[in-house]
Amino acid sequence: MIAVAAKEITVESDVFRVARHPIVLVAQLQAAVAVCVHDDTQGVGGLLHLRYVATHNNRPLELTDNTLSSSILLLDRFCKELKSNGARMQAWRVRIIAHIPPTEGLAAPVATVLDLLKAYFSDIKVPPDVRQINRSTGCKLSIDAHEGRMWINGSAVAFERPLSQAAEK
Question: Under CATH, which number does the domain 7-166 receive?
Fold first, then answer.
């Protein structure tokens, strides 16, 4: 049997995609965060690509309440889309990947966005696995929406299942 490569869809900044069929969702992270959610029981997954701060002349602009509110609204729409595609929250595996370039002044904005994301998922009792990539060049993140497998720059990424979910198995 010949394996057929899954179709790739690029997820631009401040956009999300959700799918329940074999498709690879791809985000080019450059001073951005990817929220990857997958339900192993239903074969549904998605990717939310968030910029955590805008820059001008290689300097970060101030992170405002409006920016954070927009991110929360987008995250909420992303989670609702996952549920409407059959993903069951109690079976979600949430992985958050943040790309942090060494640009001065980015540590505080990314920490704020990561704290916001962790609080959101803690409130719905789905503990996220959070990883930070500290490097000057961006990275390509890919997730197979149906299988939940992930790659960063072409290398497979292994994630631990959160303890609360591992105990249920």
Answer: 3.30.1330.200
